[in-house]
Amino acid sequence: MGSLTKSDAIAGPALSLETPAHADQRLPWEWAALGSILLASCGHLLIKLGLVAAAHATAYPGLVERVLHYMMQPAVAAGLMIYGLGTLLWIMAVSRRNISFLYPLTALNYVLVSLGGKILFDEKISSGRWLGIAVVVAGVALMQLSATGEKA
Amino acid sequence: MSPATALWTSILLGSCAQVFLKKGVSPQNTAGGASYMALLRSAWVWAWAACFLLATGLWMIAISKIEVSFAFPMLSLGYLVVPVLSIFFLREHVSRKRWTAIAVITLGALIIYRSA
């Protein structure tokens, strides 16, 4: 940040915290966007991991009791927290780039979560299911293409 | 509640939540500007929070039993439900181009459903 100049000393220490425009120290949007997508996918998978551990929770008849029991699982709580962290990174990314540019990237979550299901939970993903996922991702990209030039 | 019912209800409530939030933050419903206090006084914002919490709870019930590679891509049905709700409750216009994209997404969800 450099040494304190005379004008900084007069204006007070708050000014010296300002970063010059050419040395932007904020997280680059690529990392923020990629990080938020990875964290969101990991969060969902961790939640599923915790839910598998809480499989006996069917003993809880009430909806609220069951959900509260789920949220008490360490992996579920960690998953929710990581998901929240991903949301913070997402807000950072959105503050740097246009949402219509960033939003289609979140469709990557469909691929990542499904891959996680295959690797972590031995889910058999048929080629039909992969095709469906690919069509969904293409549709989300198309949605954003259709938004360019629209005001709403 | 069966896991499948939980999944569909969760998708529906999650979509309703978006419409409620939009109602809550639109200028004509936040008399006195969009301050945080005004948002807290808005019934729409509370409806959003309730739907969001309920949808999250139901989502957990759903994926405790259903494969994530099936349930998670199904969330993309929100791309169909939100615009349909927004036409009726927000009087939004959905362009033909956007309908095309929504149709592609829905087709994808249908393929996943059929291949379950």
Describe the 3D structure.
By secondary structure, chain A is mostly helical. Chain A has one domain. Helix content of chain A is 68%, strand content 0%. Chain A is built from seven helices and no strands. Chain B has one domain (3-114). Chain B is 76% helix and 0% strand. In chain B, helix 1 (3-25) packs antiparallel against helix 3. Chain B is flat. The chains are: A mainly alpha (152), B mainly alpha (116).
List keywords for this structure.
heterodimer; A: about 150 residues; mainly alpha; disordered N terminus; B: about 120 residues; flat
How would you summarize what this structure contains?
The complex is a heterodimer of chains A (152) and B (116). Chain A has seven helices and no strands. Chain A has 152 residues and is mainly α.
Straight-line distance between termini of chain A? 42 Å
What is the overall shape of chain A?
A: globular
Strand fraction of chain A equals under 5%
- Structural class label of chain A: mainly alpha
The count of helical stretches of chain B stands at: 6
Major beta sheet summary of chain A: none
Mean pLDDT of chain A: 80
- The total domain count of chain B is 1
Number of strands of chain B: 0
The proportion of residues forming helix of chain A, as a percent range, comes to 55-70%
SSE order of chain A, as H and E?
HHHHHHH
What percentage of the residues of chain B does DSSP assign to strands (E)? under 5%
Main beta-sheet annotation of chain B:
none
The helix-and-strand class of chain B reads mainly alpha
Tell me the overall shape of chain B: flat
Gyration radius over CA of chain A: 22 Å
Q: How many separate domains make up the residues of chain A?
A: 1
Instruction: For the record, give the distance between the C-alpha atoms at the N and C termini of chain B, rounded to a whole number.
Output: 20 Å
Mean pLDDT of chain B: 89
Low-confidence stretches of chain A: 1-19
Spans where pLDDT lies below 50 across 5 or more residues of chain B: none
